[in-house]
């Protein structure tokens, strides 16, 4: 299944082999990874395994994390998309919207732009009635994106294995 979404500034598409290096560079930035899991950076091998897992989710579920590419210049800047938040069993079954962009692309509205397109895909293209988004408390930039998307805070909890305090937001459009 090939799924591509376009926004004014982004192309959201499936992953390719040549995405591993630029995504590995993003995952190697401690500031980018500060709020992800335990804050550890990821190397090329971990990034390649992640991309392979994201592609499997596309094949198995028809949803996944899109490679986010600038339309102008076709540069990979990170990901935006959908996944099942298996790391947080208390909110399952659920589909989570998330994003990770290289630091050079922060503060320009690109995460919000991409996430709006992915949300539309989730709600209209995949018929989901509910989408969640989870962030580590303190990651104010991600929380601002969630609010811009019209999501509301549903609960606060902790990551079951890391103990990190988390905030869960939800979007449940009216039928």
Automatic annotation (TrEMBL):
PROSITE patterns from the UniProt entry: GNAT
Cited InterPro entries: Acyl_CoA_acyltransferase, GNAT_dom, N-acetyltransferase
N-acetyltransferase domain residues: 10-175
Family matches, as Pfam families: Acetyltransf_3
Protein name: GNAT family N-acetyltransferase
Native organism: Streptomyces luteireticuli
